[in-house]
Amino acid sequence: MFETHLIDELINFHHHSFTIINKNEEIIYFSRRAEEIFNMRAEDITGRKISDVFHKDKLVILQSLRNKRTIEKKGHQATPEIFVDIKSVPLIIDGTVQGAVVSEVDVTEEVRQKEEIRKLQSQVETLSSSVKKIHSEDPFKSIVYKSAQIEGVKNQIRQAANTKANILITGETGVGKELFARAVHDLTFKDKPFIPINCGAIPSHLFESELFGYAKGAFTGANRQGNKGKIEAAKGGTLLLDEIGEMPIDMQVKFLRVLQEKHYFKLGSTVEEAADFRLVSATNRKIADLLAGDDFRSDLLYRINVINIHIPPLRERPDDVESLFFYYLLQISQKYGIEMRYADRQLVNLLKEYHWPGNVRELINIVERLVIFSGGSHLDPDIFLKYLDEVDEARPHTYPALDGDTALKGFIEQAESEYLRHMLDKFDSNIEQTANALSVSRPTLYSKIRKYDL
Asked: What whole-number percentage of the chain has pLDDT above 70?
């Protein structure tokens, strides 16, 4: 009696189902997990021919019994809702087949996630292809968003592009100011040059020659043919002065004169050159700070800030976090040749709760880490949480995303569902370990898994 009970407990200890038949193809054992998968009671089918209970075409165990061989099958559809990995082995005693045993591991969630990923990849790739084909002329094609704030920015840009007024784009580091500057350019001068220059990256003593260019023989070591500057390169198109707040003070006076008179001189030249460009400037500094400081001329600021377009930081538009996350997840997965992994709602909620001081640039950094270091079929949320510890940021506390009219009961159920999913992921869907960690019985856990379709 004890041995029978011990064997039964050992068989049912793991998250596997077992079915055993004798040489007459009759069911002699049907485990508890098998009962749950097939929604049948062992007492109702024990002793019956297995082909009377299940369709014989799907019975791998019969093939093992009749052909005396081990058979393994991945992703077998056991029921309309459940997928399993199967291993079937004949039971041979003294050279004679006495029966067969089949083991099934429920991999429904893994199969569903792979199918979701496949569908997502297909949809994104189809959409990407359609966008390239249909909207190849769309000046906003590189701007990924969902929020009303960015839709408002796009409307501003469309209005501004109809004029030749100077534009100043403001926004924190990493929001993508150059992308929006490029959109301004593409709306008006798509086939003309777009010349960006980062004012903070050029040594002050080289700034004048970089911007204005120089004539041949202008100084020792100069190119013998001279060199055209960024203003000349931007002729007929757009000149983007990124981080204009870092422009040296002496250059501000000279550049202001260019904007007022529409002419300039190359370094070392007495020949006046015409300045013909659309000016778009960008800065991560606030207008008020530029006016209050001593390192930027207010008269130049008034000249470049005819139209101000402000790009809101990522923390003010959490809807865009999710859109940008999935966009860069696909791009970076393809970049490294890694199969696109599943991102669960827990991870997405964590990302949306974070305040993103580095904006889109920081988000791209995180996606890259997740793609490179996650194992298996899931993106690992712990990689993001470790990053927060690394940069000394508090870990966000998240709640399930709810509709506006979700009642308290719905909130509790969603919270329970998300937590159960997290615990199942943590223990690799091992029911015994998960149930112990949650301090609930296995039947209770199975009931909740069915309830929330986990």
From this structure: 83
Which residues make Cβ contacts (< 8 Å) with residue 57, sequence separation at least 6?
A: none
List, in sequence order, every residue forming a beta bridge with 105; answer none if it has no partner. 16, 85
Q: Are 156 and 67 part of one and the same domain? A: no
Q: Extract the runs of DSSP E, i.e. beta strands, from 10-162.
A: 16-22, 27-30, 71-77, 83-93, 96-106
* Helices and strands (DSSP H and E) totals, the chain: 20, 14
Report how far apart, in Å, the C-alpha atoms of 185 and of each of 132, 138, 166, 308, 361 are: 19, 12, 12, 15, 22
Summarize the confidence of residues 178-185 as an average pLDDT.
94
Task: Quote the crossing angle between the two packed helices 345-353 and 408-426, to the nearest 10°.
Answer: 110
Q: pTM (2 decimals)? A: 0.61
Q: Give a yes or no: residue 192 inside a domain.
A: yes
pLDDT tens by residue, 22-81: 988 898 888 888 888 778 888 888 888 888 888 776 688 888 888 888 888 776 676 767
Q: Where does a domain end: 263, 280, 312?
A: 312
